[in-house]
Amino acid sequence: MTQRKRRLTVTVDPELVEAANRAVANGSADSLSAWVSAALTDRARRDQQLARLGDSIAEYEAEFGEITTEEIARQRRADREHAVVVRGTHKRAAKARTA
């Protein structure tokens, strides 16, 4: 049996109300309430994922030591070097072709 939904009153920026109304009008949401409920569900899921990520990082650092800014920068460089361009042109590849 599904839990009965609760009515609540909130104050929302007008742009968000307009976005929700557009979603209802174009059929991507059944109602304003459904759109808001989906947004809250997404936010709750994201917050849970971030909390788990924070816990994982804390466990890693407890075992191996703090992740340094140098390690993060090194990993970012490696990620960029090994990235696969899916759309458009990789900036370095485009520069190499024009040189």
Tally of separate domains: 1
Structural class: mainly alpha
Mean pLDDT comes to 91
Measured between the Cα atoms of the first and last residue, the distance is 66 Å
The fraction of residues in strands falls at under 5%
* Order of SSEs: HHHH
Which parts are unreliable, with pLDDT below 50 for 5 consecutive residues or more? none
Total strands: 0
Defining key terms:
mainly alpha; 4 helices; 99 residues
Question: What would you say this structure looks like, in words?
Answer:
With 99 residues, the chain is mainly alpha-helical. Helices cover 67% and strands 0% of the residues. The chain has one domain. It has helices at 14-25, 32-64, 69-81, 91-98. The longest helix has 33 residues, at 32-64. It is flat.
Question: How is this fold's topology laid out?
Answer:
Elements (H helix, E strand, L loop, with lengths): L13 H12 L6 H33 L4 H13 L9 H8 L1
Question: What does this entry show, briefly?
Answer:
By secondary structure, the chain is mainly α. 67% of the residues lie in helices and 0% in strands.
